[in-house]
Specification:
Blueprint: H1 5-8, H2 14-27, E1 33-34, H3 46-57, H4 70-84, E2 93-96, H5 98-110, E3 116-121, H6 126-133, E4 137-142, H7 153-159, E5 164-170, H8 182-194, E6 198-202, H9 223-227, E7 229-234, E8 247-250, H10 253-265, H11 272-283, H12 287-308, E9 323-324, H13 335-346, E10 348-349, E11 351-352, E12 362-365, H14 370-387
Parallel strand pairs: 1-10, 3-4, 3-5, 5-6, 6-7
Antiparallel strand pairs: 2-8, 7-8, 9-12, 11-12
The structure holds glutamic acid.
């Protein structure tokens, strides 16, 4: 069978592949400790589950509007106004099957052959692949540890060509956990406006901030930046709702209308009763978010202390999300080889940095309990010592 060229150009998602392998090993009874996929280990908070259960009981089990339940679109628009100073109405919101799907819809609506999309590296694994699936060309701009893995305004300016269509901005970052300060966001927004770019701001980790880090949405910098911004986000990471598949895209009306058409011919609406859980997530008090953040804060310290005590590994302190991105460059081994052996011989799952465009690093998600982190770090230490 001859598959379409668009499929043969993309590589499978390594985050999902490793998670699948780790879960299969666990099913076989192997004591795997997983730092692979970015998935909170908490259950979805009870009030969110209850809202979805009530929706099921109330017969919210039928097709809904492809764009999303009207109430959820309203609630998302209100949240973006309240928390992010982004002036969207409900009509500017598309409810999607998770944050990933919102980005995919965007690429499909916006990108065509010949279009370039600027992506700072390290990047989340799916950005370049989505651009390719849409027929576009990812333009990868490597950032440095010295700059906190953040693209500088000059780097962005230099990457722009007449073919540039979109810039992908992600803060807090997956995989590095770095957060652009408000001043840095403003400086990047200036370039976006000066070069008349479109920017998609992936803000899915916006609530997971440490040590007083602040999140500023790039669209809130100025009316000119707002016009050029599209926001992608979702409920998975903040409310431990990974399996629910509810995310959203917010942006200018013509774009959102185009993505509604795409969704109308592809997935139709997001699971109706899941959307009622999402409404509750935004409408209820946010104590559950703070509780999970407190737990992540402790875990982050535990994992950082362990990694920084290991020979041959160095790790910057992340300000957000729930990932650490240690450098393994001194070990003289590729990230893929490192992670394969770590899983096969030490039963610890981590994602090779190559998946994120940084082969000298590995990504560890600390969205798991402290005991598992300690045990996993003991194994990692033994492994690293065996290499050095
Ligand atoms: N975004 C999460 C991660 O990076 C979930 C897996 C995925 O969609 O890539 O681990």
């Amino acid at each position: 069978m001859k598959l379409a060229a668009r499929v043969t150009q993309v590589t499978p998602s390594m985050t999902l592949a490793i998670d699948t392998k780790a879960k299969a090993m666990k099913r076989e009874g192997i004591d795997v400790i997983s730092f692979s996929v970015g998935e909170p280990d908490f259950d979805t908070p009870a009030h969110i589950r209850a809202a979805a259960e009530a929706a099921l009981e109330q017969g919210k089990t039928r097709y809904g509007a492809a764009a999303g339940e009207p109430r959820l679109r309203e609630v998302i628009a209100q949240k973006l106004q309240r928390d992010n100073q982004l002036c969207y109405g409900a009509e500017n919101i598309l409810v999607t099957n998770g944050g990933k799907h919102s980005l995919f819809n965007l690429m499909l609506a916006l990108i065509e052959p010949g279009d370039e999309v600027i992506i700072p590296a390290p990047y989340w694994v799916s950005y370049p692949e989505m651009v390719k699936l849409a027929g576009g060309t990812p333009v990868i701009v490597s950032t440095t540890l010295e700059n906190g893995y953040k693209i500088t305004p000059d780097q962005l300016r230099q990457a722009v060509t007449p073919r540039t269509k979109l810039f992908v901005f992600n803060s807090p970052s997956n995989p590095t956990g770095m957060v652009y300060t408000p001043d840095e966001v403003r400086a990047i927004a200036d370039v976006v406006v000066e070069q008349d770019l479109l920017v998609v701001s992936d803000e899915i980790y916006e609530k997971l901030l440490y040590d007083g880090a602040e999140h500023l949405s790039i669209g809130a910098v100025s009316p000119e930046a707002f016009e050029r911004t599209i926001v992608s986000s979702g409920f998975a990471k903040t409310y431990a709702m990974t399996g629910w598949r509810v995310g959203f895209l917010a942006g200018p009306l013509p774009l959102i209308k185009a993505t509604i058409t795409i969704q109308g011919h592809s997935t139709s609406n997001v699971c109706t009763f899941a959307q009622y859980g999402a409404i509750a997530a935004y409408e209820a008090p946010q104590d559950c978010v703070q509780q999970m953040l407190d737990a992540f804060t402790e875990r982050r310290q535990v994992i950082l202390n362990s990694i920084n005590a290991m020979p041959g590994l160095s790790c910057p302190k992340p300000d957000g999300a729930f990932y650490v991105f240690p450098n393994i460059g001194q070990l003289g081994i590729s990230s893929l080889e490192f992670c394969d052996k770590l899983l096969d011989d030490y039963q610890v799952a981590a994602v090779p940095g190559i998946a994120f465009g940084a082969d000298d690093c590995i990504r560890l998600s600390y969205a798991t309990d402290v005991d598992s982190i300690r045990r996993g770090m003991d194994r990692l230490t033994t492994y690293v010592k065996s290499i050095i």
